[in-house]
Design brief:
Layout (H helix, E strand, L loop, with lengths): L2 H7 L4 H21 L4 E8 L7 H24 L2 E6 L7 H14 L5 E9 L1 H17 L10 H5 L12 E4 L18 E4 L9 H12 L10
Parallel strand pairs: 1-3, 2-3, 4-5
Length: 222
């Protein structure tokens, strides 16, 4: 968060901040993989971001296409698997095609999984999961009493990922903004005033260091 406001504070258009933010994505992704992080998920474009002015949305989609094109070699070099969560059908065809190509090329790489949350909203994800489950109940493949936590999680976009240990929110905002509401039930939260274009590997390491000092009890006693 904070790309647009960072750009405006520097007397630039908002897309300038998004471009600066894309460079930070490369730096943090590469750094995280070297630190032994196995899963990194970036909230790149929310379900609600479609409500932004058309020229900004088009600029973001173009930037996403450019990022995927430019970073494919870096992902392969660093053995990083790319995945996507969200409603892919709303993305432009050119972006979907390239995204599918990069995901296919990096499938099975094991150093780290980088997940881009694109056209993603946690409430939308839960609606889509509920609709899938309802269809199975309607078809007689599932009984209502069979719907458990595991069944719900098996229909989420993140079905083959662990829940996030730590969620980092940049730019001074102190809310999750519809990001992984189900999965973040017991996630640790870290809030920083630093906007994403100014977010450094040092700030990332500070978040990890603070996280490492916390005790995660999951409702149990120490």
């Amino acid at each position: 968060d904070g790309n647009g406001r960072w750009a405006q504070s520097h007397g630039q258009e908002r897309i300038f901040g998004h471009r600066a933010g894309a460079k930070v994505v490369r730096e943090i992704t590469t750094h995280a993989s070297k630190q032994g992080i196995r899963y990194l998920t970036l909230y790149a474009f929310s379900h609600e971001n479609w409500k932004r002015p058309q020229d900004e949305v088009e600029g973001l989609m173009k930037l996403l296409w450019e990022y995927l094109k430019a970073e494919k070699a870096t992902l392969l070099k660093n053995r990083i698997e790319l995945r996507m969560i969200g409603n892919a059908h709303r993305l432009p065809l050119t972006v979907r095609t390239l995204l599918n190509s990069v995901q296919k090329a990096t499938r099975g790489l094991t150093r780290m999984r980088l997940t881009l949350a694109l056209s993603y909203g946690g409430q939308d994800e839960l609606i889509r999961a509920t609709q899938q489950i309802a269809q199975k109940v309607k078809a007689g493949k599932l009984q209502p009493n069979d719907i458990t936590q595991k069944v719900i999680e098996a229909h989420l976009d993140t079905k083959d990922m662990p829940p996030p240990d730590l969620i980092i929110r940049t730019s001074g905002e102190q809310r999750l903004s519809n990001f992984l509401p189900w999965q973040s039930a017991y996630s640790e939260l870290f809030f920083t005033d630093v906007p994403w274009p100014a977010f450094t590997t040092e700030e990332f390491d500070r978040a990890i260091a603070i996280y490492s000092q916390r005790e995660r009890r999951y409702g149990k006693l120490s």
